[in-house]
Design a protein that fits this description.
By secondary structure, this protein is of the alpha/beta class. The protein contains 10 helices and 13 strands. Helix 1 packs across helix 9, helix 4 packs across helix 5 and helix 4 packs antiparallel against helix 9.
């Protein structure tokens, strides 16, 4: 089936997503990004052929309709939704409840691909590989044979631990949930509660928990040379610590790693997730999903 797609966004994975769609023979316009050979969508001119698929960026569509692009903040409108045919697809990393409701009233399906389990597992791979790339050389040592901590044993923590273990790293898991600590131990990793008082120093730390779990007491006890925070905004650093001597020079909050280190694969993962929506139809994806917490840019567990 032929589709007219508008891709709105602002990083390399969105550019590659456009190319994937073009290869499939779809009509593709961009909104907020420049892709050679493609016409830009003009939301001020809604006459003519309107899209039946709108793909917003990973960062999502906010309650006011705003979304981040290369050209700055752009806005989804009810006029655009009015012009999309019934059965169309509105997709983004996250979609604020208001726009899920607006789409539903018009017979438009919605997919928040960041909340899809298949997307999160596949996206964990480039996230983990990019995190390791960022950590290499940070302490002046290799990762092989050295103690490295992972805060959180969700999808990214699990994949990251597996890849670090393959490098010969001594992986230590810090996890709040007893069941996940048990799972980590069953897979051969040392696991402790995050608030444990008898912490031991290690070379570095990856955080995947979108909550303020990295505080001054914990940093002083563990003394990591580097901390790479992968959690969604505002990250895992306790309030008031940013910019202080305790974290200066060793704390990095890195968002959107897949789009930076593996944009082609990141685009493929987005499309694979959305393609399921097109194949399975409204029966599977018509249900409104409200798992996203917009208070902290999603707060989606990694």
């Amino acid at each position: 089936m032929h589709h007219h797609v508008v891709v709105a966004g602002g990083d390399a994975r969105d550019v590659w997503l456009c190319r994937i769609l073009l290869d499939k023979g779809y009509t593709v316009n961009t909104w907020g990004i420049q892709v050679n050979g493609l016409h830009r969508f003009d939301p001020k001119t809604l006459n003519g052929d309107l899209p039946d698929i709108f793909i917003g960026p990973m960062t999502g569509i906010g309650e006011d309709g705003g979304f981040e692009t290369e050209d700055g903040i752009q806005y989804l409108t009810t006029s655009l939704l009015d012009g999309m045919p019934q059965g169309s697809l509105l997709a983004a990393g996250l979609i604020a409840p208001r726009w899920i409701d607006e789409a539903s009233r018009r017979g438009i399906r919605t997919v928040q691909y960041r909340t899809e389990s298949s997307f999160m597992w596949l996206n964990a791979v480039p996230t983990a590989e990019g995190a390791i790339k960022a950590a290499l050389g940070e302490s002046g040592r290799t990762l092989a044979g050295r103690p490295v901590a992972i805060l959180g044993f969700g999808r990214v923590g699990t994949v990251l631990a597996h890849k670090l273990a393959g490098l010969g790293t001594k992986v230590l898991i810090f996890e709040r949930q007893a069941e996940k600590r048990a799972m980590a131990e069953a897979l051969g990793y040392a696991a402790k509660p995050i608030n444990r008082s008898d912490q031991e120093p290690f070379d570095g730390c990856f955080n995947t928990i979108p909550a303020p779990v990295i505080d001054a007491q914990w940093l002083r006890a563990t003394s990591p040379a580097w901390v790479i925070d992968l959690a969604s905004h505002p990250g895992g650093l306790a309030p008031g610590l940013k910019g202080t001597p305790l974290v200066e020079g060793r704390y990095r909050h890195i968002l959107g790693i897949p789009g930076m280190v593996a944009p082609i694969r990141a685009a493929e993962i987005i499309w694979d997730t959305l393609a399921l929506a097109l194949e399975e139809g409204e029966e599977s994806y018509g249900t409104i999903k409200r798992r996203a917490n917009w208070g902290g840019n999603g707060g989606i567990p990694l």
